[in-house]
Amino acid sequence: MSRTQTVPIALRSGSVRHRGRLRQWLLVGSFLGPALLALGALVVYPIVYTVIRSLFDRSGTAFVGWENYVTMFTNDTTFTAIRNNLVWVIVAPVTVTIIGLLLAVLVDKIGWKTAFRLIVFMPMAISMLAAGVIFRGMFQESPQLGVVNAAITGVQSIFTDQASYPGAKPREGVGIEADQGIIASTQEVTAGETVDFPLIGVKRSALPEGSSEARAASAPGDTQISGTVFLDVVRGGGGTDGELEAGKTGLEGVRVDAVDVDGSIRGYATTGAGGTYTIDGLDAGSSYRIALPASNFGEGAAGVSWLSASWINVVVILAYIWIWAGFAMVMIASGLSAMDRSLQDAARTDGANEWQVFSKITAPLLAPVLLVVFVTLIINVLKIFDLVYVIPPGASKPAANVIAVEMWTVSFGGGNNQGLGSALAILLLILVLPSMIVNVRRFRAERG
Q1: Do the domain assignments include residue 163?
Q2: pLDDT tens across 336-373, in order?
């Protein structure tokens, strides 16, 4: 009797356990199911499909095997993109991490650090597209458009007193001539004489502000040569060619050289108000040719061609540093705030200076945070696209090319070869994976 009663009890307990496990699996599935479905749809499926698509031709109908990968590694544009990505990985993460570390440590010592951090972090609120537009405008070559070159030319103008009058030419028939951009007297002049330079071809807009009316130079001494450099044009017309008259403008800031017969420069002067000059220290009775160097008639102080192929990578990386330095600073500052300050205080008590405290205590304690920031930035720069696509003008785009831009260009930007584009996407995935694995292991170690 007891045995017949035991069997149903065992069956019922097994059924209860089975239902309990089923409820647990259903509960786990209800939480993980949507996440796994989204992960599969957004990550796993695109990766698998991209691998398969990279083995087909541009139309996706003919199987070509490894041909796209062979094409990718024999293409000059791909090599340029890989080289630029390597430069990005070496330069950008290291620079941003160092700047973030320095800002976090130094700002921690000031009273208004919250406001400073907010200002430095503010570029993170700007989209990459907007930041690219900002930097492309800032680094325009024309000083009238680009603020960087405007600042450079402004500094150049402070340290030089030589003006520039592009397009200037000598008035014909007045004893001066032009040769390879140099305007000089046709005859030799003896010390103690006067030589004027009536010029034409200078636009009124090229004249410096405050230019005064031309006037006759003072009579030279026995060891001097003097004269006036002026614009031989009267506003509204009239006047006598080659003559100093009312209404003609003196050209200030023009260098004037006294050139000996052997071609050496024996003296020089710069025209002042009214265009007058006086060259001193010449040999009495000696003859010279008076010349206006070609540098007087160039375009003047000019900036750097920042958006050219030679400099474009520097500009794009600077834009990236400007955006991400605030991110690195905030991340490192959070680690700094969680640090045990008693170790630093003890080191200072023992006589350590600030550099020793920073290098021996602060930096090693921040090493885990620095590693996270550095690896995150590496992953980010390997995928860089927006800035490289927006900042370079058309002629400089090949020099600034990176893998992500090359992938987009080949696939959708006119190449219409999604087989080769998929191969580039797989290459980018392979390059990013090591950094992602390091990050995942780091997170696991911190949790453990």
Answers
A1: no
A2: 888 888 888 888 888 888 888 888 888 888 888 998 89
